[in-house]
């Protein structure tokens, strides 16, 4: 038993480290995209496509990776996945044309698929009542977004942006080798050979899976989109240099990763539904304030026109973004608690489908952010879009979960009441 526990925690620790490195690489364009935008003279929409391209492949590959994890085991799939990205990451430093970045970015983006492999790999080493914590700890690898914002600007300023892919390629290779040495395989964790592709793809017909995908497209997709977008937002909205902008943007990314383990613990204790419900409400309130554009309102008074300025300064903006990061971190864990509760024998493929939805949210939103800025000229339109998506999620959750639960409680209360009344 002690040996099994040692193996379980060794798997979680090394998988979390590997996922952190993969996420650093997946979010690399959040920093190097800013000098590349200046170098190529890109508009906002083109910039949105540039930073979102790695997210596309990292999302689309999640379903097959989930299936392979169920079938072959997480250790070998994770190791091979990391190895396949090393050369594309290095090649990124040679890119000079816009299409070079888009094409190479597609292969670099496969690193983002590591989440689906690791979440199923780690969960199966623990009993169900502790899976929320295990998945939450692994999910803390999302802090790779913050690590990139702290590390990459230093490399960019010292050696130019082309050095970042070279450093990251070496880091990925070293991490893959360490991962192989300090992780273990457990044959009993694999899905039987009798499970067919059709049976695994049946997940797409389950309405609960679609609902969890919608929640995850906010708490994870929104996290990825904002983690990619925030550095440039601080540069253009508040006039900060790259290093300061990336440092402030990390205030959103850090809790978005580190606190995921706490979200897993809360989800184990209070249930996935309760935590997710509150996460969506907190997110809605934060996005309401973030959506308000910098505005001047002029009122005609007896003494002449009087102008008031409304808008968030950099300090208040960062505080609200920090709060939003906390909400998203807890929500990412609570959504996956739904999955481990409802689909204990099919975590790999279900997490692949839900992860695909979350990743696609992270792909589509930065492009829409850029397009909205080009169309409206309002930078906070990005938050307006996200406010609308959170509102849809809340309404969906109310009609499919809150109302039925209230009705069930009322029925129970009536049954428990005195029949003579």
Tell me what you see in this structure.
The chain is mostly helical and 421 residues long. 79% of the residues lie in helices and 3% in strands. It is built from 19 helices and two strands. It has helices at residues 2-26, 29-40, 44-60, 62-72, 74-91, 98-108, 114-123, 128-139, 144-159, 163-182, 197-201, 207-219, 221-238, 242-258, 260-270, 272-291, 314-342, 347-376, 381-416; strands at residues 295-301, 304-310. A two-stranded antiparallel sheet has the order 1-2. The longest helix is centred in the C-terminal third of the chain and has 36 residues, at 381-416. It is globular. The protein starts with a helix and ends in a 5-residue tail after the last helix. The mean pLDDT is 87.
List how many beta strands DSSP finds: 2
Mean residue pLDDT: 87
Structural category: mainly alpha
Low-confidence stretches: none
Helix content: over 70%
- How far the N terminus sits from the C terminus, by CA atoms, comes to 56 Å
Dominant shape: globular
Strand content: under 5%
Radius of gyration: 22 Å
Strand order of the largest sheet: 1-2
Count, helices: 19
**Secondary-structure element order, N to C:** HHHHHHHHHHHHHHHHEEHHH
| Main sheet properties | 2 strands, antiparallel
Key features of this structure:
421 residues, mainly alpha, two-stranded antiparallel sheet, 2 strands, 79% helix, 3% strand
């Amino acid at each position: 038993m002690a040996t099994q526990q040692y193996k379980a925690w060794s798997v979680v620790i090394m998988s979390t480290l590997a996922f952190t490195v993969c996420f650093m690489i997946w979010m690399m364009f959040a920093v190097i995209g800013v000098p590349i935008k200046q170098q190529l003279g890109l508009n906002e929409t083109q910039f949105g496509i540039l930073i979102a391209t790695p997210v596309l492949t990292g999302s689309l590959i999640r379903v097959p990776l989930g299936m392979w994890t169920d079938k072959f085991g997480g250790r070998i799939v994770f190791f091979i996945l990391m190895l396949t990205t090393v050369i594309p990451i290095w090649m990124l430093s040679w890119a000079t044309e816009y299409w070079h970045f888009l094409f190479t970015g597609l292969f670099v983006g496969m690193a983002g698929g590591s989440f689906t492999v690791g979440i199923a790999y780690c969960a199966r080493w623990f009993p169900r009542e502790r899976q929320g914590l295990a998945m939450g700890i692994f999910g803390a690898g999302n802090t790779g977004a913050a690590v990139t914002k702290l590390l990459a600007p230093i490399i960019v300023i010292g050696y130019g942006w082309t050095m970042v892919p070279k450093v990251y390629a070496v880091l990925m290779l070293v991490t893959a080798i360490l991962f192989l040495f300090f992780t273990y395989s457990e044959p009993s964790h694999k899905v039987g050979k009798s499970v067919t592709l059709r049976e695994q793809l049946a997940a797409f017909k389950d309405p609960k899976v679609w609902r969890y995908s919608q929640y995850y497209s906010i708490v994870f997709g929104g996290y990825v989109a904002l983690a990619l977008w925030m550095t440039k937002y601080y540069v253009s909205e508040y006039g900060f240099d790259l290093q300061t902008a990336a440092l402030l943007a990390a205030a959103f990314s850090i809790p978005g990763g580190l606190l995921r383990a706490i979200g897993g613990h809360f989800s184990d204790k209070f249930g996935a539904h309760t935590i997710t419900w509150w996460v969506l409400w907190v997110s809605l309130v934060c996005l309401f304030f973030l959506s308000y554009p910098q505005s001047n309102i002029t009122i005609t008074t007896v003494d002449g026109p009087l102008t008031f300025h409304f808008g968030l300064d950099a300090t208040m903006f960062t505080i609200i973004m920090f709060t939003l990061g906390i909400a998203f971190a807890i929500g990412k864990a609570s959504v996956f608690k739904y999955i481990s509760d409802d689909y204990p024998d099919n975590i790999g493929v279900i997490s692949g489908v839900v992860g695909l939805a979350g990743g696609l949210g992270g792909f589509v939103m930065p492009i829409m952010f850029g397009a909205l800025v080009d169309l409206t000229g309002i930078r906070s339109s990005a938050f307006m879009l996200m406010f609308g998506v959170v509102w849809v999620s809340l309404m969906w959750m109310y009609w499919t979960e809150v109302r039925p639960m209230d009705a069930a409680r009322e029925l129970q209360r009536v049954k428990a009441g005195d029949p003579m009344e």
